[in-house]
Design brief:
With 92 residues, this protein is mostly beta strands. It contains no helices and 7 strands.
Amino acid sequence: MESIWKYPLEVSDVQTLVMPSSAEILAVQVQNGKPCLWARVDPDAPKTDRTIITHGTGHAVSEETGEYIGTYQLEEGQLVFHAFEAAGGGQP
């Protein structure tokens, strides 16, 4: 049976999340002042590394950045970040 899991995110350029291999990323939002990613997962699926890349508004974005996941804001909207998953889920 699938369920929805939350993954806290760091405010960093690149980070790796360990998720079930079939996880479907649903959203990125801020909860209690911390960025989080939510995904629909099969808890019994084998785990794999998924690379999340974060860019601030106005920062350069390379073609290898990957697929857009979502945007979140911190500091009452003064800081805006855009999250992507690296192509193939691995390192950019």
